[in-house]
Amino acid sequence: MNGNVPNGLIPRRSSVVTVAMVRLLYDTYNEYAEWLRRFRDYLYVERDDVDYYLLYDEYLQIIDYYRNRIRDIHEIILLQLN
Could you name the domain of life of the organism this protein comes from (predicted)? Predict the structure, then answer.
């Protein structure tokens, strides 16, 4: 390791970057899910197809599942850093 770098600084920087990346991914999922919910009624009005509704609902469930999973991973990372 470089003599000019204080001990432990590199791992701390790495963990900060990891937390920031996971947080950004979580925020992106939140924003995307919110956008889908806002336009849900509009999309339903334009369609008269039951299969479309079922696929759209399944799509929202998948988005929610991964958003929750990312949140859980984010919390695990924060707990391990503290």
Answer: Eukaryota
